[in-house]
């Protein structure tokens, strides 16, 4: 009708487990290769027919356990036993790749002093804390963030070693990302990884419970 504006078309996909529809960003696409191997397509760019699963580790595991991939793709499919963990590693690597890109763009400051100074100056888009770092340092920076009125998300999904490798430095415990650009993309990927693991952006569970540390990624749920 004249004078009315139409809502923009939003592409949605249907999860083969829950049968609920949602945005592609909240799901993981899977494609089947000629050999029957199932490949997670986290960037939704691989050729071939695909199916979609809600981006949560427990739901991906359920899809494999109940043979829902084969049923939906109507072909023989052999999901790897560790499929849910494989997806986690891919999502994690995607986050760390974006952190590396943000660092190359000059958007990352590392070290307690530099992060505290960045908070005082404003313009911090995200804080990154190594999940195996000391609690007193995290607490002091949290206090600095409150004093500065910062509402930047605190990302505690990665170990110090992972941050070292992504940033090309040693002993990285605290880092801050400037607002905008690759920092925004990094935070979006971290939110996806956190949702997949069933945790919040700062590494706490959705119910606010503590998470047991893991050697390879201390923010994973047990």
Mean pLDDT: 86
Q: What structural class do the secondary elements suggest?
A: alpha+beta
| Number of helices, counting only DSSP H or I runs of 4 residues or more | 7
* Helix/strand order: EEEEEHHHEHEHEHEH
**CATH architecture descriptor text of the largest domain:** 2-Layer Sandwich
Number of domains: 2
Strand content: 15-25%
CATH superfamily of the largest domain: Ribosomal protein L30/S12
Number of strands: 9
Query: Mind describing the biggest β-sheet?
Result: 4 strands, mixed
Strand adjacency order, main sheet: 6-9-7-8
Low-pLDDT parts are 1-9, 204-216
Principal-axis shape: elongated
Helical content band: 25-40%
Radius of gyration, CA atoms, in whole angstroms = 20 Å
Distance between the termini: 54 Å
- What is the CATH C level class of the largest domain, in words? Alpha Beta
At the fold tier of CATH, the topology name of the largest domain is 60s Ribosomal Protein L30, Chain: A
In short:
This protein has 222 residues and is of the alpha+beta class. 38% of the residues lie in helices and 16% in strands. Helix 1 (57-65) packs antiparallel against helix 3 (83-104), helix 3 packs antiparallel against helix 7 (182-197) and helix 4 (112-121) runs parallel beside helix 5.
């Amino acid at each position: 009708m004249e004078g009315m504006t139409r809502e923009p078309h939003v592409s949605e996909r249907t999860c083969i487990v829950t049968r609920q529809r949602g945005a592609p960003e909240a799901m993981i696409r899977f494609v089947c290769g000629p050999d029957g191997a199932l490949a997670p397509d986290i960037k939704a760019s691989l050729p071939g027919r695909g199916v979609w699963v809600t981006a949560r580790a427990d739901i991906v595991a359920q899809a494999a356990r109940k043979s829902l991939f084969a049923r939906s793709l109507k072909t023989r499919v052999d999901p790897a036993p560790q499929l849910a963990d494989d997806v986690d590693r891919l999502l994690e690597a995607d986050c760390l790749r974006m952190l590396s890109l943000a660092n190359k763009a000059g958007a990352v400051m590392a070290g307690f002093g530099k992060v505290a100074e960045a908070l005082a100056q404003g313009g911090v888009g995200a804080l990154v804390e190594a999940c195996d770092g000391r609690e007193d340092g995290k607490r002091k920076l949290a206090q600095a963030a409150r004093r500065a009125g910062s509402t930047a998300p605190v990302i505690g999904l990665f170990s110090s070693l992972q941050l070292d490798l992504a940033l090309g430095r040693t002993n990285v415990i605290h880092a801050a990302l400037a607002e905008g650009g690759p920092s925004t993309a990094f935070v979006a990927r971290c939110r996806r990884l956190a949702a997949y693991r069933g945790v919040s952006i700062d590494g706490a569970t959705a119910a606010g419970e503590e998470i047991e540390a893991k050697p390879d990624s201390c923010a994973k749920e047990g």
